[in-house]
Amino acid sequence: MSNRSEIPVRTRYAPSPTGPQHIGGIRSALFGWLFARHHGGQFILRIEDTDQKRSVPGSLERILESFEWLGMDIDEGPQVGGDYGPYIQSERLELYQTWAKRLVEQGTAYKCFATTEDLAEMRASGGGYDRRYRDISAEQADRLEAQGKPYVIRFKMPLSGQTTGVDMIRGEVVFENAQLQDAVLLKSDGFPTYHLAHIVDDYHMKISHVTRAVEWLPSFPLHIQIWEALGWEKPQFTHLPVLLNPNGKGKLSKRKQQFAADGKSVPVLAHEFIAAGYLPEAVMNFLTNIGWNFGDNREVFTTQEAIERFQLEDVNPANSAYPIAKLDWLNSQYIQDAAVDDLARRLKPVLEAAGYAVDDDLLRRVVPLLQVRLKTLNDVVAMAGFFFADWQAFEAPPSEVLIQRKMDSAAAATVLSGAIPVLQRLDDFGSETQHSVMAAYAKDIGYKNGQVFGSLRAAVTGQRVSPPTFETMEILGRTESIRRIELALQALKERA
Ligand code: GLU
Predict the structure, then answer these.
(1) pLDDT single digits (tens) 318-356
(2) Residue 290 gets which letter from DSSP?
(3) Residue 265 forms part of a structural domain
(4) How far is the CA of 50 from the centre of ligand 1 (A)?
(5) Closest ligand 1 atom, residue 202 Cα
(6) Model confidence over 179-198: pLDDT tens digits?
(7) Quick check: CB of 15 below 6 Å from ligand 1?
(8) Do residue 491 and residue 370 come from a single domain?
(9) 452 shares a domain with 415
């Protein structure tokens, strides 16, 4: 249990609705979610839309879709509801205004009337905000306000001394107060900044553990000071490591497309994982493995198993390079282990999207041939789309596909034409029988198995890469297989 076991565990994910979800954000959310689930607590989604200029319509829907796809259920949040709502910050403005005012009244925050031009001048002369309104009297402030001068509310950060924060994975972190500015809490339009809004919300939403990206660590002393000024008991904090680009340099960016060693583009946005044909279970496993270890040298585990073991304290504080190569491997493990019907259900829409009309019985027969061969669901199209194409419309592939290594057109024709009567004579067209008889045939005619099997594969599938030749021929059936071999022979003759 948590070291404050009397307090129910409540964690939150608090994204700004600025467009598609970056996988780094999802990974931060995941750690908060796993922790809440481990402790039987609640996981809350809160939308931080106080920077209205950056808000992108439709972001919430995309966030919810990603969570649903991954199987990360939300206990409270927009569209879900809950006792501590609303869960969208722009609907809570009065609350932030009340607390900002309270801080001004108690003297830990102040109204600042510096204009945009004033601030630009301060920046031009090389400094930050020079605190010029920090110590004006209440009367002066009232007078300026009465004149209709716009103002922001700033926090009075202590000018000296140190602030010590405790982070669950970083331990005590000590900051020099003099390094910090008097941050804005409330803007002149009445909207709060992140600094004020998230604290007011974390308090009112009874968040027990704040988990957020390490980018917020420099603001940690400011946040501690604000919590203390408000006189509220602080939650526990974890500043989570972030994902770096695959080469280990710089934060994983969604703007620059990254390329993996095999030239495929690297998915970074949540919906790109769906589009690329990854299974949600594999993506969950993949993300859980970054910066956290299941232990026992196990890399493949279910979400439920991760929940049982997950502790925030075990998260490695170091940022990690995005181990994208692992994802294909993990995904292929999940594909191999999936039940045939389950995998068929997931492959069907991919084939349909590629324009194939999918017969369910045929798909169920094909799936076992694919399980050890697919890295992603999308691979099914190139690997096995031919099964679902119109068989009557099948055409022999180009000669360079038909002709195998160290063979010429005549040799390919000899191999294929000799194979037809052998295949016709088989009592049983099962793949094992075909295999042994064709191996014997290869020996008889003085060719390697690879040359004979490859010629047949090319003839019946039209491709160089496919599921195993004889399993494929078994599914196509004897008549169709032989018809295709004859088409190949004809093509070789016409093109010779
Ligand atoms: N809205 C903030 C962000 O997107 C939330 C940070 C936090 O979790 O406190 O970075």
Answers:
(1) 999 999 889 999 999 999 999 999 999 999 999 999 999
(2) S
(3) yes
(4) 11
(5) 9
(6) 999 999 999 999 999 999 99
(7) yes
(8) yes
(9) yes
Q: How far apart are the first and last CA of the chain?
A: 76
Asked whether residue 114 is assigned to any structural domain, the reply reads no
User: pLDDT (tens digit, 9 = 90+) per residue, 349-390?
Assistant: 999 999 999 999 999 999 999 999 999 999 999 999 999 999
| Cα 194 to ligand 1 centre (Å) | 8
**pTM > 0.90: yes or no:** yes
Nearest residue (CA) to ligand 1, atom 5: 14
Can you tell me which atom of ligand 1 is nearest the CA of 215?
A: 10
Taking residues 62-90, what's their average pLDDT? 97
Residues 265 and 356 placed together within one structural domain of the fold: no
Q: Domain residues for 398?
A: 341-495
In terms of domains, do 384 and 461 share one?
yes
Cα separation, 9 vs 478, whole angstroms: 63
- Are 379 and 482 part of one and the same domain? yes
Strand, helix or coil for residue 160: coil
Residue nearest to atom 3 of ligand 1 (CA): 15
Contact 33, 72 (CB under 8 A): yes
* Residues facing 383 on adjacent strands: none
48 CB under 6 A from ligand 1? Answer: yes
What is the 3 state secondary structure string of 161-204? CEEEEEECCCEEEEEEHHHCCCCEEECCCCCECHHHHHHHHHHH
Look at residues 321, 279, 286 and name the one whose alpha carbon lies nearest to residue 306: 286
pLDDT for position 203: 98
Same domain for 334 and 263: yes
Pocket test for ligand 1, best of 46, 216, 224, 312 (most atoms within 8 A of CB): 216
**CATH number for 385:** 1.10.10.350
- Tell me how far the alpha carbon of residue 15 lies from the centroid of ligand 1, in angstroms: 5
State the pLDDT at residue 1: 42
* Cβ of residue 16 lying under 6 Å from some atom of ligand 1: yes
